[in-house]
Input
Amino acid sequence: MIHRRLQKLNFYFEFFEKDSIFPFYESVNNNTNGEISVNQSTEEIGRFKNRVSIVNFIPPYLDLKINKQNAPYRAFQVKPRTGFIMDLSQYSAADEYLKSHLGSKNRRSILSRLKKLETCFDITYKNYFGEIDESEYEFLFQEFELMIGSRFEQRGDEHVGFQRWDEYKESVYDLIVENRASLFVIYDKKKPIAINLNYHFDNILDIAIPSYDIDYSKFGLGQIVLVKQLEWCFQNDIKMVDMRWGDLPYKRLWCNKIEEYKCDVVYNKNNPTNLILAFTIAKYLNIKKSMGKSKIQQLRLKFLRKNRTKNETVDKVDVVAAIRIEDLAELPSTDQIRALDLSENEYQFLRNPVYNYQYTHSAHSSDIDVYSLDNEEMSYIIAGKRKLQKLIL
Output
C-alpha cells in the first residue's frame, strides 16, 4: 500500500524540458544571478494532497521555495547524488578557463587533437539555437540516434535516453525555436560527427546528451566539442555549464564545481501518516547515500589495483589482434587493386583504421585513397602522400 502513497518526480525534466514547475513550489531562484521565476502553473495542487512526492534532480544552483502560505506542503531535503558543473563566472574566455582548470598538459593535448582534426578533415561547427531547418533537424536526430547506439553498443550498454527518445525527438525542435534547447554539431563536410543536446535557462547551459562518431575516437571528439561549446558560452554570456550527475573521469577533468544535487521529499503537513513516511524516506536516502559512497570507494580501489598494469596492454592487444598493419614500398599494379569509397555503408568498418592513419600522419582525407586487394581476402591498402600501409583484418 505504501507505493500508492509515493510518486517519483524529476525536477530536471519538468523544468528544463517542459518549462514547468511542480505546483507545490511557489518560485525558483537562480542563485547565479538572483533572478526569480514565479510559478505560473495552473495545475490543480490538490492531486498531491494525499501522496508523498520524491522530487529528484534539483540542481545546486537553483533554490526552490515551497508554497507554505496557500498550501499545506512541506519538504525534507536530502542530497543523494553528486553533480558536475563548470562555473564560468570568474573567467572571461574559454582559453582562460582551460589554462586555469585543465592545466597546461591537458590543454595542450586537447588543442593538439583539435588541430589534428581540422588538419585531417573539412571541419565546421554549428550551434542550432533559435532556429533550425526541419529537414536538417530530422537528419540530425537520425544521426544522433545512430551515434549513441554505436557508442553504447561498443560499451556493451544501453543509453538511458533511448527510453524517452520519441519524447526528445518530438519536443526538441520547438524548444530550439523557443531558445530553450540547442543542438551543437561538429560536421566533417556535411556529415555530423559529434552532437550535443543542450537545454537553456537564463545564463545556464545544461549538457543533456552528448555523443560522437566512434570512428573518429582517436581525435578525442568528446573533448573537442566541449572546447567549442565553451567558446560559444563565453560569446553568449553563459555563466554555468551543467554536466549533470554521474561520476565520470571526463567530468572531473572539466568541472571546477562538484556539488550535491538536491532531492525534496514533499508531504502534506496535515497528514500524519505522510509526514512519518516522508521523514522515513529522507532518512533512508541519506543512509543509502552513505553506504553507496563507501561501496564506490572500495570498488574504485579494487579496480585500480587490478587494472593498474593491465588496461593499456589489453587495449593494445585487442587492436593488434583485430588489424595487422604492414608498410608497403609501392602500390600494386592497377589490375590487382580496386578503389573503394568509404562513404558507402559496406565499407564503414574501414573508417576507423583509415581515420587513425590520418591522425598519425596528419593526412587530409582528400589526400587518401583506399583500395581492396583482389587476390587477398580482407586485405586493404591506405595510400597517402607520404606512406603506404596494408591492413589485414
Observations:
- The mean pLDDT is 89.
